[in-house]
Design a protein that fits this description.
It is a single chain. The protein has about 210 residues and is mostly helical. It folds into two domains: about 90 residues; about 110 residues. It is built from eight helices and no strands. Helix 1 packs antiparallel against helix 2, helix 3 runs antiparallel to helix 4 and helix 6 runs antiparallel to helix 7. The longest helix has 27 residues. The protein is globular, with a radius of gyration of 17 Å.
């Protein structure tokens, strides 16, 4: 590995690490040759394996694992394990709620205490961004994650498992990517260097 090579994954590698495990979950849930009621448990096992594989790939290939990816992976393994062990899909369904709520809370705490937590995690992803840009970006993502936590709770508690999975695929992922894109004009106004485009999502999509 060249000493000049970036430690953090970029481009398609970053997307594969962040979104790949979730896509594995969707594909296995759709294609697993088991009765419908068992699909989510098989998919959860595949999700756990894919998250571990993403961690190993990031650690070996780039010698870097983002804190958000590590946090998400721990939650997948713990709550996914409980889902399979107790044969209760509730645990994997509440994982996004816990993830979104905790990240929103941490970002809000950082804003309230003047600590740039998002900048510490994602500084190299947004080169040139000034302090006001970081403040606005942190505020925006904290609000987005708080809303997504509420939405995930409403969806899984009031719909079928198949609808919840469809919501994650056709609702949560596009919403996250569109929200990231919607922040770009504000980021550019606050100094973002666009000469070397990088993924603009804040971490693994839940």
């Amino acid at each position: 590995m060249s000493g000049q090579q970036a430690r953090e994954p970029t481009g398609w590698a970053r997307l594969a690490i962040d979104i790949g495990p979730l896509l594995v979950f969707f594909l296995v849930n759709f294609l697993a040759p088991v009765p419908g009621a068992l699909k989510i448990f098989v998919a959860t096992g595949a999700f756990m394996a894919a998250m571990v594989a993403a961690l190993v790939f990031a650690a070996v290939r780039y010698r870097y694992v983002s804190p958000l990816l590590l946090f998400s992976a721990v939650m997948v393994v713990v709550l996914g394990g409980l889902t399979i062990w107790l044969h209760n899909e509730t645990f994997i369904k509440i994982k996004p709620t816990i993830y979104y709520a905790l990240v929103a809370g941490l970002l809000a705490f950082g804003l309230a205490t003047g600590r740039p937590l998002l900048k510490l995690v994602l500084g190299s992803t947004y080169p040139g961004l000034d302090e006001e840009g970081w403040r606005k970006l942190t505020r925006n993502w904290a609000t987005f994650f708080a809303v997504m936590a509420v939405v995930n709770e409403a969806v899984w508690r009031n719909s079928t498992t198949d609808f919840w999975i469809a919501f994650k695929l056709w609702g949560a992922i596009p919403a996250t990517l569109l929200f990231a894109i919607a922040n770009v004009p504000m980021l550019i106004r606050h100094g973002l260097n666009t000469d070397e485009p990088k993924p603009l999502e804040p971490g693994p999509v839940e």
